[in-house]
From TrEMBL:
Domain Glucose-methanol-choline oxidoreductase C-terminal: 431-557
InterPro entries: FAD/NAD-bd_sf, GMC_OxRtase_C, P2Ox-like
Family listed: Belongs to the GMC oxidoreductase family.
Domain of life of the source: Bacteria
Protein name per UniProt: GMC family oxidoreductase
Cofactor or coenzyme needed: FAD
GO molecular function terms attached to this record: oxidoreductase activity, acting on CH-OH group of donors
Alphabetically ordered keywords of this record: FAD, Flavoprotein, Oxidoreductase
Pfam families on file: GMC_oxred_C, NAD_binding_8
Biological source species: Ensifer canadensis
Length: 571
């Protein structure tokens, strides 16, 4: 494997490959490894470097004309997304969280993974534009392979709850194979394996996708570095794996042959933009949270000499969705930090930002046990600590006290004082052709139009969030479990009071379909009408489900890699 920067090449160089993949996120790197193992010469093109940088992050700029414009939404986005990506800014990214660098979105993700339900692939009369051209059973073998990629456990966990149209639902956390105390970061994992037959070209931003004169064949991509160095990459096959915003933007901006953009004869590219919609349902105080934490907390499962961590929540049954005429949704439980959390107080004191020194000193003194535990975690995370010792400690901790380990992962090794348990709801967003990515009149430094985002939320999403909030309260009460103090928007049924933000799960903008009139790619993820141009990632999803999408995205990526290897084998 070679990793080079475009700046190292002569200007206007021509680079050749069997397969060129645009985007070095989890999708692009997974396809690259699957194809390189079959002996294909693969070039992966990445706009950023090994790690994120300010000048490359500036290329994530979008124009927003849809949701996410109120002051309340902006504040909530900063609180939710601000600590995830190092150089994320609400001014540059008023929609989405994109990371330019080797590993893509896994620089910022939480590792949370779950499969889609069988119903998510079906056409539902009450969900407009629903239905996939492939079914769930067809995807299952690829899901199992994707689980191996993500270092997940394939075991099915038991149903621990079934009441009022809600059933047990489990999320897993993809743990790193390189850093035992971190979640999986695909760039670091890829560098550790260094697959053969794969070249990675960094600091190479795609400015145009080229097709031949009649538009039936991909011909090349043009790339440029932040310093202005340009090159052309020619390949037998091209895969766009640059994310839900950038995949659509590149097709729309490549107008040499088709004035409306590539794959856009029927004005579908960029439409059906989806994300997940989430809201807080209520909270449980610390004196009543023990029973729910035990049932709906984290579970350790041992599989193939590794301990795996699951989180237990509740999801709507298929029958409840049809009865209520709502989309798919789930609730999950998360801990809430106390106002006098000792780590927060200590940071204020050390940075001379305390507005009440006496209060913060008392908080630190009272929380000395938390501070000591945090120091122990920092020692365990030090690179000088032997890996065999880390494995023993972490695997044992997951099996004995998975809730404690989850807190450590989520707080980056700093244990916090808690004030209660939050109940959160997350729901599927129905496909809507008016919700879309188009091109702005503004352009980036390379002259390519920015993506213009018009994300729209429908009444179905608000109805779904309200009903799962009410149903979850009823289900907990019927099971004689502690019930939350519901948020006012639930008790007063005022969904208009909800402050909705994007969850950085950008989906649907180059959707899969059997016809170019209703989608951008066919069931093999090939752009309709172009023999050798493919798209990978969540942008091909016809519907969004409620589950975090990475596992299903990688299942489709592996499926696509198999298809590409077969196509090249046949010549």
């Amino acid at each position: 494997m070679r990793i080079r920067r475009l700046s190292e090449f002569d200007d206007n160089s021509i680079i050749m490959a069997d397969i060129v993949i645009v985007g070095a996120g989890p999708v692009g790197l997974t396809i690259a490894e699957e194809c390189s193992r079959a002996g294909r010469k693969v070039v992966v093109v990445e706009s950023g470097l090994e790690l994120e940088s300010p000048e490359h992050s500036a290329l994530n700029e979008v124009e927003n004309v849809g949701e996410l414009r109120t002051e309340a939404q902006i504040r909530k986005r900063i609180e939710f997304h601000g600590s995830q990506a190092k150089f994320w800014s609400p001014d540059v990214q008023p929609y989405g969280v994109r990371c330019r660098g080797l590993g893509g979105s896994t620089h910022a993700w939480a590792g949370k993974s779950a499969p889609f339900d069988a119903l998510d692939f079906q056409a539902r009369s009450w969900v407009p534009y629903s239905g996939w051209p492939v079914d769930h059973e067809h995807i299952v073998p690829y899901l199992l392979r994707a689980m191996k990629v993500l270092n997940l456990c394939p075991k099915a966990l038991p149903e621990r709850f079934d009441n009022e149209g809600l059933r047990s639902f489990y999320w897993q956390f993809a743990r790193s194979r390189v850093d035992r105390l971190d979640i999986m970061r695909f760039g670091r994992e890829f560098l550790a394996r260094r697959p053969t037959n794969t070249d990675v070209l960094l600091d190479a931003t795609v400015s145009r996708v080229g097709v031949n004169g009649d538009g039936s064949q991909f011909s090349r991509i043009d790339v440029v570095s932040v310093g202005g160095k340009r090159a052309r990459i020619e390949a037998t096959i091209c895969v766009l794996a640059a994310g839900g915003i950038e995949n659509a933007r590149l097709l729309l901006a490549s107008t040499d042959v088709f004035s409306q953009g590539i794959g856009n004869h029927y004005d579908v590219v960029g439409r059906f933009l989806m994300d997940h919609v989430a809201a807080r349902v209520g909270r449980i105080p610390t004196d009543r949270m023990a029973a729910l934490t035990k049932l709906f907390g984290f579970y350790g499962v041992h599989h193939e000499n590794r301990a795996h961590m699951f989180a237990h929540g509740l999801a709507l049954t298929a029958a409840a969705q049809e009865r209520e005429q709502i989309s798919n949704a789930a609730v999950f439980f998360s801990t809430e930090r106390a106002p006098d959390d000792p780590w927060v107080a200590l940071k204020r004191l050390l940075r001379s930002r305390s507005d009440n020194v006496g209060r913060d000193v008392l908080s630190v003194a009272a929380g000395s046990g938390f501070i000591a535990r945090g120091i122990g975690m920092k020692i365990l995370s030090d690179h000088r600590t032997p890996k065999v010792f880390k494995d023993l400690i972490v695997n044992t901790a997951i099996m004995i006290s998975p809730n404690l380990v989850a807190d450590e992962f989520q707080s980056r090794g700093l244990p916090h004082k808690l004030s209660g348990l939050r109940i959160e709801a997350i729901c599927e967003q129905a496909p809507n052709p008016a919700s879309r990515v188009s091109l702005s009149e503004r352009k980036d430094k390379f002259g390519v139009p920015l993506a213009k985002i018009d994300w729209r939320i429908s009444d179905l999403e608000y109805k779904t969030l309200l009903r799962i909030a009410e149903l979850s309260h009823e289900a907990l009460a019927r099971a004689e479990l502690p019930t939350p103090k519901l948020e006012p928007w639930v008790t007063e049924r005022r969904t208009q009071d909800l402050v909705i933000i994007d969850m950085a799960h950008t989906l649907g903008t180059t959707r899969m379909s059997t016809s170019p009139k209703t989608g951008v790619v066919d069931l093999h993820c090939r752009v309709h009408g172009i023999n050798n141009l493919y798209i990978a990632g969540g942008s091909v999803f016809p519907t969004s489900g409620h589950a975090n999408p990475t596992l299903t995205i990688l299942a489709l990526a592996i499926r696509l890699a198999d298809h590409l290897n077969s196509e090249l084998e046949r010549g």
